[in-house]
Every structure is written in C-alpha cells, then in structure tokens.
Fold this sequence. Notes:
alpha+beta; 6-stranded mixed beta sheet
Amino acid sequence: MSCISDFSQPFPQTGQNLNLSLGALCLKIDATKAIVYSYIVDTVKNHEGDFVQKGSAPNFQDDVISLCTCKHWMRTFRTIDKWCDNIWVAGFTGKKEGKGRNALIYLMKVGIAFKSYYELWYSDKLPDTVKQAKLAHRNKFGDIFQPKSKLIDKEVFNPQNYHPPIQNHVHANPKNPNNWHKDINYEKGVSGRKAALLIGDTQYSFLWNKPMLFYPSQLSRGQKKDNLQDLLASFQK
C-alpha cells in the first residue's frame, strides 16, 4: 500500500484486488445469502480521475481495510458476533466525485469485529504491523487508538485511557479537538450498543482508485441494506 501523505491517505497503485472489473469481482466472491451495507464516503474526492481519501475511514493501510472511525450509527446495527455472518460493507463516492453517479470505492467482507479498541489492541487476530500502520497518535489519518495501560470493564470506553491523536488528526481539528472521543465511546447506538470496530477479510477486500463500477440508482445519505447478489447483478458498468 502507499504511504500516508500530509494531504491524504493515498490509494494503493497495485494489488490483486484493485480495480477489478465486474466480471472478475463476481468470480472471486460467493454473494449467496450475503448482506451488504452501502453508503457514501464523503471524504473520498476525485482528483483528475483518481480517488484520494482525505479521511481516516475506510482505512486501507498495510493491506487491510478497516472501518473504525466512520459510520458509527451503522456499526451499531448488529451485535459483535453477528457482524461476521457473511456481512459486507460497500463505500461509494458522492455523485460529484463519481462524475454524476455513485462510484464504488471499496467492498469488504467483515472478517473481524471488535467491541473496543482495547480488545482490538490486545488481540492476536490483527497483526502488529497493521496496528502500527493505522495508529491515530502517529498519523493524521489513523483509525486505531492505543490504550495507555491495562483496562477493565467500562474503562475500555473512556477516551482518557487512550493515547490522543496526533496534532491535526482529521478527528481532532482545532474547531472540534475532542471529536475523536466518539470513536472510543459512541453513546447513541441502536439498543444502547457501542459501535463495532470492523476489519475486512483480506481475501475478500476490494478497492477501486478510479470510477469503474456504479450503484444502480442514486444513493442517499445514511446507508442502504441490500442483498449482495442482487446488488452485483444490478451494477452499472
């Protein structure tokens, strides 16, 4: 993957799951009985035909797509264990960035769901290289917060127990320096649930760094729940 710059979180330029055609994508995945949540990624812009990510999520550093600092409400739709039941997430551009249509940016099958950054940080399910590459206190587009020490119970949701993000982090700008607190402790979830931290299955994570595939209709704000098989069948090439 590309290194993070001062201005954006660059998209990768190479990779076997990059810029696949619809036909190639369908050959790689089994969409049977799969559910996909589709939404607009406001922070992805179109620069001279190529996408640039000016936000922290989706984060695709170190060859892993993670969704930990965006779509908080959507990430409370399911309990932690149910996020891994053949659930997919798809991010699309706004119409302007997709040249009049919502262009597909990424599609990932949820491989791991964590209930807190503390659980994520001490889990052996995620390689240390991935955790280091995504650290919020080391780069302004990072989406992983490192705990300062061992924690128990509700302490894992207290922002004061984590290293704060680096200066000028996208969720800690001067106008709203504590915006990142909701990444640690989102309090407005469905049925009082916290927002799950979602990590894509690397085998079934796909990226497009230019407009190639498009949502069949116009996406509105929020998120749209679809059957993945039906969605793929209706994609506009």
